[in-house]
């Protein structure tokens, strides 16, 4: 059985990584960010790893350039998906962190994926680059409201995993 591909997004510090980690407690879940490889290239080019406004702009611009030049972020996501499916065949979910609406639309189609938005009322809204600014500019298939305790988010992660395992999202990916 192929893993359910889930494109996850949300404002910085909304709880995306925490949600993925909690899901991994309840089902077999793996995570990859479409900017992971770009970060390694950025470090090679001198980026200090700080995600301040300057760093976020650099990563956004570098990812745009890599996408335009050779579609590197998409190729790396395909490579990750294939590696997981070849080595861990019983994976329930592969989470792809993607920010940009156009890339989300492409990945949704390419991977027969569902989209999930993590919303947190006090999450910082960043508008200095298009990748962060456009987070809420699309319609997501599923929204997780991270406005409670960690235990409540854990319960939501468990419910989400149960839905994936039961085939709840198949009607979305069949369209």
Task: Describe what you observe in this structure.
This protein has 175 residues and is of the alpha/beta class. The protein is 51% helix and 15% strand. The chain has helices at residues 16-26, 36-44, 53-70, 72-87, 101-111, 130-133, 150-166, 170-173; strands at residues 4-10, 29-33, 93-97, 114-119, 142-145. It has a five-stranded parallel beta sheet, with helices on both faces. Helix 6 links the parallel strand 4 and strand 5. Helix 1 crosses helix 7 (150-166). The longest helix has 18 residues, at 53-70. 33% of the residues are buried. The model has no long low-confidence stretch (mean pLDDT 93).
Entry summary:
The protein is an alpha/beta fold and 175 residues long. Helix content is 51%, strand content 15%.
Features:
175 residues, alpha/beta, five-stranded parallel sheet, 51% helix
> Into which percentage range does the β-strand content fall?
15-25%
Main sheet properties:
5 strands, parallel
Computed structural class: alpha/beta
Global mean pLDDT: 93
* Helix content bin: 40-55%
Task: Note the run of SSEs as H and E.
Answer: EHEHHHEHEHEHH
Question: What spatial form do the alpha-carbon principal axes imply?
Answer: globular
Based on DSSP secondary structure assignment, what is the total number of beta strands? 5
The largest beta-sheet arranges its strands as 2-3-1-4-5
Query: What's the gyration radius in Å?
Result: 16 Å
The low-confidence parts are: none
Individual helix count: 8
Terminal CA distance:
19 Å
């Amino acid at each position: 059985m192929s893993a359910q591909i889930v494109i996850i997004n949300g404002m910085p510090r909304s709880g995306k990584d925490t949600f993925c980690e909690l899901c991994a407690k309840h089902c077999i879940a793996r995570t990859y960010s479409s900017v992971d490889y770009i970060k390694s290239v950025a470090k090679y080019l001198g980026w200090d790893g700080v995600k301040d406004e300057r760093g976020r702009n650099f990563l956004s611009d570098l990812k745009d350039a890599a996408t335009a030049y050779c579609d590197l972020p998409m190729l790396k996501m395909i490579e990750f998906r294939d590696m997981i499916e070849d080595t861990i065949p019983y994976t329930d979910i592969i989470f792809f962190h993607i920010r940009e609406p156009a890339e989300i639309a492409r990945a949704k189609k390419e991977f027969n994926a569902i989209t999930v938005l993590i919303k947190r009322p006090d999450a910082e809204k960043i508008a200095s680059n298009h990748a962060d600014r456009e987070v809420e500019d699309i319609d997501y298939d599923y929204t997780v409201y991270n406005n409670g305790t960690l235990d409540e988010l854990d319960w939501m992660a468990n419910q989400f995993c149960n839905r994936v395992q039961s085939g709840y999202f198949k009607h979305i990916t069949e369209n």
